[in-house]
């Protein structure tokens, strides 16, 4: 997934035009999707479902199985929300694309997941400027069926509003990026994917587990808060949780004292390796050496 330089954490600057609602929600108007748009969904869906068995974590596969997410059509947010609400109290709301941080956090804090209403162009399957319906619904929504992830993403919303007040948003956004978007987890002695940015990308679903290029390092909160990330290419480092339930502990920690500690330390490059890192695999960086940062 390649994205141009950005002002907003991880996504292209220039949020979509401000819609009528102050919370930036819009009607999904599911009936207005064209056969071509449903066909784009079908292509992306089939490509991922051929890759993810044996790569995606059990919670993702289980969540996908229990939700009204079909192969041949863009899901209907109302039908998704009916099942989600019964399971973890979440719902999916449509937005035109990127929304301002505080709007994003407020939705998450109220268990409303803002999903891009549009789908990417058929001739740009691997090029994403802003989160579209495939990234948000295929990538994020299945994990919202997992009670711990459901609590963690709500806590991120609440914590995000607080981090903004504390001027610590960059550190918190790194935690979100290296878990919810690009996280790996141990399962039965192997590594599995739970990050939405990975499960919705064909190339990175393979790269993150098979390539000798990236580092794979045991998750450590202050370490992750210090580590910058790549927005223009595959990640140079993946952080690995021992179990998804560790997110619950994270959601209960008071981040404020940690922000002060971490703010006093230098930020780390995306490909840094520290002496006290729990290294699972040390990468040879061959992929990124061939592609210097844009
Ligand atoms: C830090 C925060 O998570 C990040 O900047 C944002 N992400 C998103 C966003 N808006 C949408 N729709 N999706 C995101 O993932 N706005 C802000
Ligand atoms: Fe996302």
From TrEMBL:
This is Phenylalanine-4-hydroxylase. PROSITE patterns: BH4_AAA_HYDROXYL_1 (PS00367), BH4_AAA_HYDROXYL_2 (PS51410). Fe cation binds at residues 135, 140, 181. Residues 1-22 are annotated as: Disordered. It comes from Tepidimonas aquatica. Pathway: Amino-acid degradation; L-phenylalanine degradation; acetoacetate and fumarate from L-phenylalanine: step 1/6. GO terms for biological process: L-phenylalanine catabolic process. NCBIfam families: Phe4hydrox_mono, PRK11913.1-2. PANTHER family: AROMATIC AMINO ACID HYDROXYLASE, PHENYLALANINE-4-HYDROXYLASE. Its cofactor is Fe(2+). Belongs to the biopterin-dependent aromatic amino acid hydroxylase family. It holds the Pfam family Biopterin_H. Its EC number is 1.14.16.1. One of its GO terms (molecular function) is phenylalanine 4-monooxygenase activity. Residues 1-294 form the Biopterin-dependent aromatic amino acid hydroxylase family profile domain. It catalyses: (6R)-L-erythro-5,6,7,8-tetrahydrobiopterin + L-phenylalanine + O2 = (4aS,6R)-4a-hydroxy-L-erythro-5,6,7,8-tetrahydrobiopterin + L-tyrosine. Keywords: Iron, Metal-binding, Monooxygenase, Oxidoreductase, Phenylalanine catabolism.
């Amino acid at each position: 997934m390649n994205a141009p330089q950005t002002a907003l954490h991880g996504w292209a600057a220039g949020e979509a035009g401000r819609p009528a609602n102050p919370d930036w929600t819009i009607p999904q108007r599911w009936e207005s999707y064209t056969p071509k748009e449903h066909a784009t969904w079908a292509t992306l869906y089939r490509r991922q479902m051929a890759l993810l068995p044996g790569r995606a974590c059990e919670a993702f596969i289980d969540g996908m199985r229990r939700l009204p997410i079909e192969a041949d059509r863009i899901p209907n947010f109302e039908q998704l929300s009916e099942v989600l609400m019964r399971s973890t109290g979440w719902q999916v709301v449509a937005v035109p694309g990127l929304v301002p941080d505080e709007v994003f956090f407020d939705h998450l804090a109220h268990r409303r997941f803002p999903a891009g209403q549009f789908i990417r162009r058929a001739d740009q399957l691997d090029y994403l400027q802003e989160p579209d319906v495939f990234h948000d619904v295929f990538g994020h929504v299945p994990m919202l069926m997992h009670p711990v992830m459901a609590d963690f993403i709500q806590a991120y919303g609440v914590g995000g509003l607080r981090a903004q007040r504390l001027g610590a948003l960059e550190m918190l956004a790194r935690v979100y990026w290296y878990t919810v978007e690009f996280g790996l987890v141990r399962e039965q002695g192997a590594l599995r994917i739970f990050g939405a940015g990975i499960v919705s990308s064909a190339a990175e679903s393979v790269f993150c587990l098979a390539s000798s290029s990236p580092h794979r390092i045991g998750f450590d909160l202050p370490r992750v808060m210090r580590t910058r990330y790549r927005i223009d290419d595959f990640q140079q480092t993946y952080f690995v949780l021992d179990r998804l339930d560790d997110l619950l502990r994270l959601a209960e920690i008071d981040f404020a004292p940690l922000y002060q500690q971490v703010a006093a330390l230098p930020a780390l490059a995306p490909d840094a390796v520290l002496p006290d890192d729990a290294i699972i695999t040390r990468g040879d960086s061959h992929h990124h050496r061939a592609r210097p940062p844009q």
